[in-house]
Design goal:
By secondary structure, the protein is of the alpha/beta class. 51% of the residues lie in helices and 13% in strands. The strands form 4 sheets. It has a 4-stranded parallel β-sheet with strand order 8-6-10-11, sandwiched between helices. It has a 3-stranded parallel β-sheet with strand order 1-4-5.
Length: 297
């Protein structure tokens, strides 16, 4: 009888230990003083972190007028570190998110201060951004919120692609060229290149063997004869110089036989959407799809 009683006590103790462990895992987060040092870090964490008190500060890279007002308004209550590693260290965070291109010195300073530092690379594809977002969601114990956001991205992409298929049917894929006011374009290995593929377009810069961001001459633009030319805008509202280039292209006699010019398919797009590396990447893809195929909202 005593043996049975002891066994019952042991089982009860084990149950309490298991229950307390599960409870603590649900309630206690590993990191509760988090600081991102980049624009995309701000964007990702503002949507990921369900308890905003866990964000000690933001990088301060989200600017008014260059993003949706709703996103900018979220940043107002947070301190901004503005690239100051000294300020970051003074805040005594338990986790800092930093991109590898920000330099080994900054990363070393954080590590020397014994601050857990998550160093990540720029995403070059939708899949890479998907993977990075899930990694960060796991890191900050926001798996459920992370999956909701990723599912929304995938559903929106699927819907957009279906719209494009229905509109284009048996038509050939559009031949697209990004052409900036300083004659730059985006080739292989860029996020822009992947976005064009996701909307079933052909990136001509990639097809002629260009890699990364580079110059493309006026003569080459005429030679490859794009169906559509996209002109990037620096900033959501800074269109003056870009609209001037659009007007020049449409009126330039040497361009008059270029298909995009003849059919007046020269469109202005926000430059930010070439390089956006957060969950807002889906907004960029939707924008490109709507512009390229002239889809209705």
């Amino acid at each position: 009888m005593k043996k049975i009683f002891r066994l019952i006590l042991i089982l009860m103790m084990l149950w309490n230990i298991i229950h307390l462990t599960i409870f603590s895992q649900e309630k206690v987060k590993k990191y509760n003083k988090i600081v991102p040092l980049t624009l995309n870090g701000d964007e990702m964490l503002l949507d990921l972190i369900t308890d905003e008190s866990r964000l000690v500060a933001l990088s301060g890279k989200i600017k008014k007028g260059k993003c949706p007002d709703e996103l900018y308004n979220k940043t107002l209550k947070f301190e901004k570190v503005e690239n100051s590693i000294e300020l970051v260290i003074d805040l005594q965070p338990d986790l800092v998110l930093i991109m590898d291109w920000m330099g080994k010195d900054k990363i070393s300073q954080l590590e020397d201060a014994e601050i857990d530092t998550f160093v990540y690379k720029t995403s070059r594809t939708y899949k890479e951004q998907h993977k990075l977002f899930r990694e960060i969601a796991d890191l900050v114990d926001e798996q459920e919120q992370g999956e909701k956001i990723l599912e929304d991205m995938d559903e929106r992409l699927k819907k957009l692609q279906q719209q494009i298929k229905e509109k284009t049917k048996d038509k050939p894929a559009p031949r697209i060229l990004l052409y900036s006011p300083i004659e730059e374009t985006e080739g292989m290995g860029t996020l822009y290149d992947d976005m064009i593929k996701l909307i079933y377009g052909r990136n001509l810069a990639s097809e002629i063997g260009m890699r990364g961001t580079g110059k493309i001459s006026k003569e080459k633009v005429i030679d490859i004869n794009p169906d559509i030319i996209l002109i990037p805008v620096w900033g959501m509202h800074e269109k003056k110089g870009t609209e001037k280039l659009q007007d020049i292209l449409l009126k330039d006699k040497s361009f008059e036989e270029v298909k995009a010019i003849k059919e007046k398919k020269v469109y202005i797009v926000a430059h930010k959407y070439q390089t956006i590396t957060s969950q807002y990447l889906i907004d960029a893809i939707e924008m490109l799809g709507k512009v390229v195929y002239q889809l209705e909202d």
